[in-house]
Here is the input.
Amino acid sequence: MNFQINKDALLKNLIIAQKALSNKTPNPALKGIKMDVTEDKIVITTSNSDIAIKLEVKDSSLNVESGGSMLIPGKYFIQIIRKLDGLKVSLSLIDDNMLRIEADRSDITLNMMDLEDFPELKFAEKVKSINVNVRLLKSIIRQTAFATSSIENRPILTGVNFQIHDNKLKAIATDSYRLSQKEIELNDEYEPLDIIIPGNSLDELLKVLENNNDQVEIHFDHSKILFKYDNILFQSRLLEGNYPETSKLVPTEFPIIIKFNKENLATAIERASLLSSRDGNNAIVKLELRKDNVVEVTSNSPEIGKVLEEVYPVDEIVGKPFKISFSSKYFLDALKIFNSSEVSVNFTGEIRPFTIVGEYDKDMLQLILPVRTE
Amino acid sequence: MKKKYKVILHVDLNAFFASCEMAKDPSLRKVPLGIGGKSDRGVLTTANYIAREYGVTSAMSVVEAKKRCPNLVILPGNFDLYRHYSKLFFEVLTSYGCPVEKGSIDEGYIDLTELTPKRHPLDIAKEIQNTLNSKHHLPVSIGVAPNMFLAKMASDMKKPLGITVLRKRDVKEKLWPLPIDDMYGIGKKTAPDLKHLGIQTIGDLVHFKDKRKLSIVLGNQMDHFIDKAKGNSNKDVTPNRYIDMKSIGNSQTYTADIHDYQEALNKLKKLTRKVIDRLVEDRSVAKTLSLQVRYNDFSQINRSQTLEYHTDNFLEVFETIETLFYDNQKDKPIRLLGVSVSNLKDKSDHFKQIDLFNIPKNAKQDERVNSTIDSINKAYGETLIKKGFIHSKQED
Here is the structure.
């Protein structure tokens, strides 16, 4: 095997492949990057326990003198290519088990891994796929994956639930303390679908997708989902099990509705959460609607001090004076992903879920569970 | 601002358990008194000063104590009584409006720095001592020092009813000659190890050269101990430290061994109730719940479980204790049962995150109760009404 390629073109693809590279794995072969070189292209494959990535590289700078396959220690290879000088890099296999990397004045030899240890990966493309605009897919992920659970004791909740009915795609994520839901319309009608994609896989997918108006083809079966985009095949395992029914848990009637300027509310909550003795950014703040229709955001840590913030609602308030306490993190996480500059916060009771919606985010719903203070 | 020395008192109740009995029953004030073991197989936890004249000490077996002092009166432990007097004791300390830290049930620290421009600390110490002695019949010895460690050491120097001032410049003369065993924080395990190194007194510790050897014994606490011995310690009197570190527990040794599962469960229920009452009274909530079982062959199990949230709810706690007991059953008669809760925090800082899949069914009702309580409290002052709980009828 012997070929030359533009260094940056190779690096760009390696960085994508790195997303599925294992660092800790019982199977050392998964620390490797598989490279298959044929006449006109390089195919790069990586895999870990959650995702697998396959890239077809057909750069105009590619010049293949002879083809072949090899398994390269991923971490070292990427570090080397990243640090090389020169525009071009030349890669050749010597003595059957060593890769020689030449660029500018560098000459590096890297021991290869045993190709036979790398698992056979099937990237299953189906006849029928779902097509979604990249930008839209990215916004779905960005607006839901953050609400997945990061603890493994309820594995199902570490994933985002994707449901398709006719031409509607609904994505739901919850860690049981807050819930994020986004619903979009697809261009076509599809068979009903109900799958759970690991939140971590979606986070990695987000890094791979660019911001443009291309289409992503989504193929899936009962255990895997495949995203086909540009020269990339990105495959993730699916979580097994039934996602809990959440639609009945979202309240539909709200006796108290308060509309805020998003920035004003967010900064008030941020300031209120500064003086918290609680670990992390998990401060508890209290929101109180006063008789004079001003909203007070307060927090109190006896050993540090207290904060009182007044926030003026931007519109007529529906409902009576009332107060509620919640984790500032959940509220701020939710506010961050709104495009609208004004949001409505809809309350049902001081120990019941409340929702946040925005005029320019009609397809999205954020739900937060309060805390009960004794 | 000019840097000034802190003034900290350590107030130590003398022979506390015995003093409580004597405070309650004047007829006991003139007789030798020991507290502890109900039967001959027990040991004394405390002896009053009259008994001590006969050579009776705490941790002495009942048999031995009776040998030394045949007319010794022995009373069983009565923790409800001790808690009552402990409360009175801390009420006196907190009445000065200065930070008070509970050391344990019978000792406390008070930081008088704020008051000292106006009053001499010795006057305050005398006043505390007199108030406790004349009003509650509780003798205390008091240490006055610039930090908590020295205050603690000082209160030990003159007992009972002593007041000892230990300034930093007195350390060489008053503290260093003391045996290393007397240093607060050096326990029964560490002291022999230090003596093995040739450290007999607190002064020896300060002057010990081979830091490497010393660190093997004292670990990462080495510098900490040396600093304290030199009279440097800047730990503040922290009113809530008690809550951070301590646990609340009740245990009981039964005169007759328990053979029956249901009977053991009933005993555990009683113990849990006591613990919860104390927890509520302490205005704390707990996260870790522990069960202790000692069998008649003296083998023992300790099992605990940490909940996802803090609680002071009897049913939640008892459910866990019952599960722990059920999961660890053994086919042996039980001699002692204990229930304790730890990982405590102040209830006012307590929140319970509500779970989407487990929204309280009585949410509506709860909200109404809360808002009623709030409006009453708003109208009549801060906390006129609080939420209580219903005591289930205790079975015997």
The mean pLDDT of chain A is 91. Chain A has three domains: 2-117, 130-237, 250-368. The domain at 2-117 of chain A is CATH 3.10.150.10 (DNA Polymerase III; Chain A, domain 2). The radius of gyration of chain A is 25 Å.
